[in-house]
Amino acid sequence: MDINWPTIVLQTLGFLLLVSFMKKFFYGPVLGMLDDRSSKTKKLWDDADKYHSEAKEKLKEADLFLSQAKEEAISIGKKARSMGSKQKDALIEKGKTEAARLVQRGQEDVERHVEKTKEELKDEVFQIAISLSEKLLMREMSLQDRKKYFSIYSKDIEKHL
Question: Where exactly are the structural domains of the chain?
């Protein structure tokens, strides 16, 4: 077997020429395209991580806002209950005050009526006493005698009333 050296050299030169041609025109652009694709993929992953971390932060902010809103709602509810309780207490106190005022006014009316009735009875009793005295004594009493007996009888009557 004979080795054909010129063919081997020619094929080797052709292969090297093909490899250099491929490297210059295809390998560089393909590697560039692969590098671009790799950098775009890396950028997309970085963006995804960034958006994921931003989403986590937004979720934390939303949770914080929600918890603050819940606390505020609870606080508003407590304030409303407190105000309602205060208004209820104020209305009860107002009602008690009004009732006490009405009772006091009623007592004063009764006392005035009692005093008025006492005075009327005193005058009637005095008139009856004078009339009886005049009939018993068969004469009219002078004004001075009337005043004297009036003071005596009124003291007695006041003791009994």
Answer: 5-160
